[in-house]
Design goal:
single chain, alpha/beta, Nitrilase/N-carbamoyl-D-aminoacid amidohydrolase, Rossmann fold, seven-stranded mixed β-sheet, 20 helices, 18% strand, elongated
Length: 643
């Protein structure tokens, strides 16, 4: 199974100007390579059979005949292959010369797509040779011994994939043809381009392609002329890009002197899921509802074995990638959290904020957000009330880190032990404290929440929740215990991102003690600390031993909520993303745990407190996620069990 992926290639062959025989041979060589790699659709540059820079030679019948013969040879060459090939050539039609893309498969020409926007400015003067698709009525043309439709208004359908084509300048138009093609159903757009070089153009083109693929919610494959074109007045360096909904999947080398090919897989499932959720896309599609569009049927490209994914699958999709934008992304996330809290503090007119400080990751991030918010509002950090509440499972390490952190933050520190209150509660309930069951654990969580709520009333404060997105997804929170607060600043921050943000703040700290404290908190095993520690004083109750690694659950959560993927596809992506880090049986175990808990714990999310959205995934019942608390998980679990 291909799990919704289509393997595509953007190829830049070596060319000789006006040497159709040589150029065709180079194209054939790359088609063979692509076919051996399991590529389903390959795209070559604009006018790739003749070369782009032929000038007035385009009016020579010898060149036009050579281009047609080159196309015939390509059709014959691909007769035994299922790969779909898109090449460029000039085609004479109704007394005009058209700059066309030819689509062929298994020795059959499927269609010809002419260029719509013919540039005639600066170094471009294509109108000297070519007519626009808007000027010449579409129709059938006899070429290579076949009658085939020549039209810019056509889509090509191959199995589960529908694609459209535009040529070079078309992309630069205010309303590119690709916009209409996408609205009429194209999952992928292929662009055959020439694209001369100039300083700064490469980065501009990269941004343009990403933006168009994002706007059209499509895959976009771009192949541009390379070395071998005429350098009389301009240079063609060869550019290839493959994008998907605004994200770059792959790009080729720039200024290569040899032929090259860029290959990746475009996720049709992902794109169609985006379109289903994006009502603006649907509304826009209604505007072109009456526009006729031809559909050319291709054969499904059959691969003998399952597709091998070459694209990178990020094992930590919530974490900003390392690079020049890392600081910017972390600052944005942190600032969104602070902005949300600042508004709530000003709106309620509260004098303080109250939060429990455990020495763990979540409460640390929440405290850092509170400190930054109070600084921005010009309020004294003494208005931040940090309460540490040692219990039966509190270790020296977490207790010490909690105290140190509060001291370094310069906030008001309170310490209220919950041990005696919980023991009294056990006596009132008639519960044996030696029975370390759910009653034993949850009583402590609810006692802590009661203290925070009452302390907030006492000091005209606001209880700041510390729970994160991963805990909400798994229901790893005590109902009406740590599940409840007056504002949850971490509500849409998954655990892997919490770790990353705390480490990011630590590495920016100028205070060595503060930095070391934060880094030790990052390295501390994640635990609710509701069971007594071991004889060595170390944490005995480790969350990830009980519910599974958070990096796996965050991966599952992202692809379920953000992309709508089914369990089987998520499992395959996890195999690719994590490699040999987790055996298959371990992945299956925790995937089942994720779906089982996600469905059974929706009731906790249905009444969760307010909190700011920081990314593309959130589970707020007032925002991005609305799900019945009693929805059945049977279909999802059945698919998990079938893995």
């Amino acid at each position: 199974m291909n799990y919704g992926f289509v393997k595509v290639a953007a190829a830049v062959p070596n060319v000789r100007v006006a040497d159709c025989k040589y150029n065709t041979e180079q194209i054939e060589s790359q088609i063979l390579r692509a076919n051996n790699q399991g590529v389903e659709i390959i795209c070559f540059p604009e006018l790739s059979i003749t070369s782009y820079s032929c000038g007035d030679l385009f009016f020579q019948q010898t060149l036009l005949d050579g281009a047609e013969m080159g196309l015939i040879n390509l059709m014959d060459f691909t007769r035994s292959m299922s790969i779909i090939v898109i090449v460029g050539l000039p085609v004479a039609f109704q007394g005009s010369l058209m700059n066309c893309a030819a689509v062929l498969q298994k020795g059959r020409l499927l269609g010809l797509v002419p260029k719509t926007f013919i540039p005639n400015y600066k170094e471009f003067y294509e109108q000297r040779w070519f007519a626009s698709a808007a000027q010449v009525p579409e129709g059938d043309v006899l070429i290579c011994g076949q009658q085939v439709l020549l039209s810019a208004r056509q889509l090509f359908k191959a199995g589960n994939c529908t694609f459209g084509i535009e040529i070079c300048e078309d992309l630069w138009a205010p309303i590119p043809p690709s916009s209409t093609l996408a609205l009429k159903g194209a999952d992928i757009i292929f662009n055959l381009s020439a694209s001369t070089d100039s300083a700064g153009k490469y980065d501009y083109l990269r941004r343009l392609l990403r933006q168009q693929s994002a706007r059209c919610l499509c895959g976009y494959v771009f192949a541009s002329c390379g070395f071998g074109e005429s350098s009389t007045d301009v240079v063609f360096s060869g550019k290839t890009f493959i994008c998907e909904n605004g994200a770059p999947l792959a790009e080729g080398p720039c200024h290569a002197l040899e032929e090259f090919m860029t290959v990746s897989e475009i996720d049709i499932d992902l794109l169609r899921g985006e379109r289903l959720r994006n009502t603006t896309f649907t509304a826009s599609a209604a505007q072109v509802k009456g526009l006729p569009m031809h559909i050319a049927e291709a054969q499904t490209v059959i691969q003998e074995e399952g597709m091998e994914l070459t694209r990178y699958i990020d094992p930590h999709p919530f974490i900003p990638a390392n690079g020049p934008l890392l600081d910017q992304r972390c600052e944005e996330i942190f600032s969104i959290q602070c902005d949300g809290l600042a508004k709530r503090v000003l709106h309620t007119g509260c004098e303080s904020v109250v939060l429990g400080i455990s020495g763990g990751l979540d409460s640390t991030l929440a405290l850092l957000v509170c400190a930054r918010t109070f600084d921005r509002l010009g309020k004294s950090r003494r208005g931040i009330i940090g309460i540490t509440m040692p219990g039966f499972g509190t270790t020296d390490r977490t207790y010490t880190n909690a105290i140190r952190l509060m001291q370094q933050m310069g906030i008001t520190i309170r310490e209220i032990s919950i041990k005696e209150a919980c023991l009294q509660h056990f006596r009132d309930l008639g519960h044996d404290p030696e029975v370390r069951d759910i009653t034993y654990e949850n009583s402590q969580a609810r006692e802590r929440t009661q203290i925070l709520m009452d302390a907030a009333n006492q000091m005209n404060g606001l209880v700041i929740g510390t729970g994160d997105l991963s805990e909400l997804a798994l229901g790893w929170a005590t109902y009406n215990g740590d599940h409840m607060s007056m504002y949850g600043v971490n509500a849409s921050v998954p655990k892997t991102l919490v770790q990353h943000l705390v480490r990011w703040v630590a590495m920016r700290s100028e205070e060595e003690v503060e930095k070391n404290t934060l880094l030790d908190i990052v390295d501390t095993p994640i635990s609710p600390e509701l069971l007594p520690s071991g004889e060595d004083g170390e944490i005995k109750q480790k969350t990830e031993d009980l519910v599974g690694p958070y990096e796996l659950h965050d991966f599952f959560l992202y692809h379920m909520i953000r992309n709508g993927f089914r369990p089987r596809k998520t499992y395959v992506l996890a195999q690719k993303a994590f490699g040999n880090q987790y055996p298959d049986e371990v992945l299956k175990k925790w995937l089942k745990t994720f779906y089982r808990r996600f469905f059974s714990q929706q009731f906790k999310r249905s009444c969760m407190p307010d909190g700011p959205k920081v990314g593309s995934v959130t589970l707020s019942p007032r925002g991005d996620w609305r799900m019945p608390s009693d929805a059945s998980s049977e279909a999802w679990m059945a698919e998990c069990n079938a893995l």
